[in-house]
């Protein structure tokens, strides 16, 4: 069963900083609706990310680009209604913050006001500096996201590991230090070499949360559907599946279909 710390009544940005300070790893997972978020929160996950991966796993798009701010707010408000303990962080979707800093601020404020979430996440480093400053200036906590940033997938052209070359690794380190100096409370590091994660996590005071970034990040995050094996086609090397729910759910539903066809459901006790 879960080993989550029962002393933590409500996880805040300060709580996850304290976890890093005392060397306790931070668990993070995505969720996109009320029922999922109830499960994730009850299991003791400290940070719930309403990720724009909803575009892939909830809506079936190939990339995270199509999801809109309104759709993110819908997912985030469903999650917030379920959560009693975790810190809820919401992705600012593609196109809602890169244009200019006023637009970024408007988008972040809509998320905070309309969903009740506790923080936002933004992808990128120096390129989005002004937007990060503006959002932080309104008192909205910001989590950064470096390495493989899926909103830039058409620039990268592939989902391969990022920052393997020295120049890109150096830029990532500079971006991470910049995000910390601006006041971000944490940074997601996605799909980068484990050695780079180790140096970034040692250099930064704020927590790093890794995905496909090795064991030395201060915390780990996965996508809900991937961890539970709901999406059985996605099998990257970094993913550990803790259940095979695609199989469990398909078999259960096939069983239901059989029972309906055989007229054994509902039985007498299941009828009024
Ligand atoms: O959208 C998302 O799910 C994410 C995580 C993979 C970090 O950004």
Automatic annotation (TrEMBL):
| Gene3D superfamilies linked | Phosphoenolpyruvate-binding domains (3.20.20.60)
Q: Where is the protein situated, by its record's location annotation?
A: Cytoplasm
Its UniProt entry gives the catalysed reaction(s) as:
(6R)-5,10-methylene-5,6,7,8-tetrahydrofolate + 3-methyl-2-oxobutanoate + H2O = 2-dehydropantoate + (6S)-5,6,7,8-tetrahydrofolate
> What is the enzyme's main class?
transferase
Cofactor binding, note field: Binds 1 Mg(2+) ion per subunit.
Quaternary context = Homodecamer; pentamer of dimers.
PANTHER family attached to this UniProt entry: 3-METHYL-2-OXOBUTANOATE HYDROXYMETHYLTRANSFERASE (PTHR20881:SF0)
Annotated function: Catalyzes the reversible reaction in which hydroxymethyl group from 5,10-methylenetetrahydrofolate is transferred onto alpha-ketoisovalerate to form ketopantoate.
Name of the protein? 3-methyl-2-oxobutanoate hydroxymethyltransferase
Q: Which gene carries the instructions for this protein?
A: panB
């Amino acid at each position: 069963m879960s080993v989550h710390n029962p002393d933590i009544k409500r996880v805040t940005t300060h709580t996850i900083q304290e976890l890093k300070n005392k060397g306790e790893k931070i668990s993070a997972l995505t969720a996109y609706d009320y029922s999922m978020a109830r499960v994730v929160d009850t299991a003791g996950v400290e940070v719930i990310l309403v990720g724009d991966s909803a575009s892939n796993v909830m809506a079936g798009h190939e990339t995270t680009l199509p999801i809109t701010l309104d759709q993110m707010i819908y997912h985030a408000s469903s999650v917030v209604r379920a959560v009693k303990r975790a810190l809820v962080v919401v992705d600012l979707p593609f196109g809602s913050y890169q244009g200019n800093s006023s637009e970024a601020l408007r988008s972040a404020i809509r998320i905070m006001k309309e969903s009740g979430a506790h923080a936002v996440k933004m992808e990128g480093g120096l390129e989005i500096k002004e937007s990060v400053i503006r959002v932080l200036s309104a008192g909205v906590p910001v989590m950064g996201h470096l390495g493989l940033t899926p909103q830039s997938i058409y620039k990268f052209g592939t989902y391969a590991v990022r920052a393997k070359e020295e120049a890109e690794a150096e830029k990532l380190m500079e971006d991470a230090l910049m995000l910390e100096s601006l006041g971000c409370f944490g940074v997601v590091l996605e799909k980068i070499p484990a050695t780079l994660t180790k140096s970034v996590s040692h250099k930064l005071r704020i927590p790093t949360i890794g995905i496909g970034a090795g064991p030395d990040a201060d915390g780990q995050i996965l996508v809900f559907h991937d961890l539970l094996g709901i999406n059985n086609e996605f099998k990257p090397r970094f993913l550990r599946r803790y259940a095979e729910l695609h199989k469990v759910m398909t078999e259960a539903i096939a069983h239901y279909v059989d029972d309906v066809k055989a007229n054994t459901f509902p039985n007498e006790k299941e009828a009024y």
